[in-house]
Amino acid sequence: MNNQGVGILVVDDEFSVRDSLCNWFRNEGYRTETAESGSEALRKLQDSLWDIVLLDIKMPGMDGMELQKHIKKIDNTIIVIIITAYATVDTAVDAMKEGAFDYLSKPIDPDKLSILIRNAVNQRRLIAENIQLRQKVEELTLQDEIVGESPQIKKILEMIDTVAKTDATVLIRGESGTGKELVAQAIHGKSNRRYFPIISINCGAFPEGLLESELFGHEKGAFTGAQYKRKGKLEMANGGTIFFDEIGNIAAKMQMDLLRVIETKQFTPLGSNKVVNVDFRIIAATNSDLEKKVAEKDFREDLYYRLNVFSIQIPPLRERTMDIPPIAHYFLDKYARSMNKDVTDISPEAMRILTQYNWPGNIRELRNTIERALVVVGKKNRIEVEDLNLLFLPKANPPGDSLEEIEKAHVKRILEQSDWNISRSAETLKIDRVTLYNKIKKYGLQR
Amino acid sequence: MSYIDIVPIGEVEETVLSFLKQSIFQTFKIQTRIRNRPFDLSLAYDPVRDQYNSSGLLLELINEPPPETLKILGVTELDLFIPIFTFLFGEAQLNGIGALVSAHRLHNQFYGISGNRELLESRLLKEGIHELGHTFGLIHCFTLKCVMKSSTYVEEIDQKSIQFCKSCEQEVLHWRNGRSISLK
Asked: Active-site residue B60, yes or no?
């Protein structure tokens, strides 16, 4: 580790102090300059970047305290060290309350100066490292974007922004493949817990006993096969967020255990007698009808209310067809880059097919379709109809090219999507109900 | 021929000066000599601090050097200070001609323990080479054993060696070659 690149500005009205400290720091390999007044220091602070400012409190004109306030306005990460005569130690303490890193009494003990500067440089490096790591975490947590321009997706993005700032439990609902985990990650990524992990657990993927050990962890020998002590996911999520996917699939006993953990933020690993305290935010997701499960006593009502504090409903892709082109292009860019392919577009005909398909597997299915198309696209630079999996092509004959035919097909599709709910269809089509009735009549549309 | 002059300031034992003369020659491969000259110490003395102003002594030390003098190392038993610091082991002009080293705080006795002649000479030599190193343009080095590593207390001086690390040695060599200094 060397000091090259670390800039120290010495501000003192006494020449001998400036000169001595400047020589000392230059010998240590620091980039050093001096200023004999507050105004000269401010000029130098604006001209170049400084890491540490050594500042005499008593100077004619702008004193050290005032200068410190200006420095903090210019860059509040600059480390300010106050130099003071013994009689002004009280002022130095005041300066520290205003954010100075430390103070030195004149004459300075070289040992103390050496240690103090070393600590200040380390602190400065840690701050810089911290900023870099935070940026990195932010990049990583926002890996996959929520793409879409539809009013529904804009509303979801607003809800994410609102709820992320709180610590409320969130229940995300939507069909399989709609991107529930992505929404959970976005909430976590925008929350104050973002520098801690988000731990996902697919509750539907584990048999009851295994889910318990997965969540709570276990001691060595807690059960047959528990050869080592293992931390549970609840403990791993400490400080961060735990995401329970398919929450509707957990068994009755597990529901009770989970309710207790949510209420107390405490649990006991299997085979242990030690209570573990945890602090996490809960986000759950389901594609099942939880209300029905509650009514049928398959899901605990108290757990349901605990989880359903803030609910986000993600509409299926077929209900927001205007999002299909941007999502398709998003995956096209992403996979073309990862496969190192020069495919930049989707032909209009292929896009028409994509937007007409009803996507039972939602975004996951669209993603797989684009990924597969990129594999089979060959040397072409755009995806054509033949690159799409033929099984996915819409069964209905495509409408003709006239405006009337296209409008008829579009109105029919929107009506079908909403199960002929006139109000909802009119809202989607951005027309009033009377106009919609007129179009149904004009095109002879029937259920 | 060019010399590194070793100049006593105040009373310094002959044997110590001879030891430095020989050892510094071995390090820098530049002829060394002991050069006595008078000093008016009263100008540098601060009665309030009971210490001697290092910068004042250094200025006097480099005043009107003989033409064959390449570098000057002042050696003293006086306790040195500069106004901003409580004390100094030594001071030097970066890329200049003069350096100054004090044995005052290098004695074990200063810290209340029994004297050790060998240790004192070793500390004085390390600090002498270190301060002279600055006059060759070397700044403090981060290599643990390099003599150019900064030391603010004696234990740190004891931890480093009397040798330059490869990189600092190269710089001194480069400096010397640039001036075609005679090795004789």
From this structure: no
Q: Determine, for residues B86 and A21 on separate chains, whether the beta-carbon distance falls below 8 Å.
A: no
CATH number of A403-443, picked from 3.30.460, 3.40.50, 1.10.10, 3.30.300? 1.10.10
Note which residues in 132-151 of chain B have CB less than 8 A from chain A.
134, 139-140, 142, 150
The full 3-state SS of A105-160, as one line of letters, equals: ECCECHHHHHHHHHHHHHHHHHHHHHHHHHHHHHHHHCCCCCCCCCHHHHHHHHHH
pLDDT in single tens digits along all 447 residues of chain A: 566 678 999 999 988 889 889 988 888 888 899 999 999 999 998 888 899 999 998 888 888 889 999 998 888 889 999 988 765 677 777 888 888 999 888 888 888 888 899 899 888 888 888 887 877 776 665 555 788 889 999 999 999 999 999 999 999 999 989 999 999 999 998 898 888 888 888 887 777 777 888 888 877 766 666 666 778 888 888 889 999 999 998 888 889 988 998 888 888 888 888 888 888 999 999 998 999 999 999 999 999 999 999 999 999 999 999 999 999 999 999 899 888 888 999 999 999 989 888 888 899 999 999 999 999 888 888 999 888 875 555 554 556 677 888 888 888 888 877 778 888 888 888 898 889 988 988 888 877
Q: Which CATH class is domain A7-137?
A: alpha beta
pTM: predicted TM-score of the whole model, two decimal places: 0.53
| CATH 3.10.20.120 holds for B3-178 | no
Nearest to A28 among B82, B87, B139 (CB): B139
Report CA dihedral (B142, B147, B151, B156) to the nearest 10 degrees: 100
At the topology level of CATH, where does A151-315 sit? Rossmann fold (3.40.50)
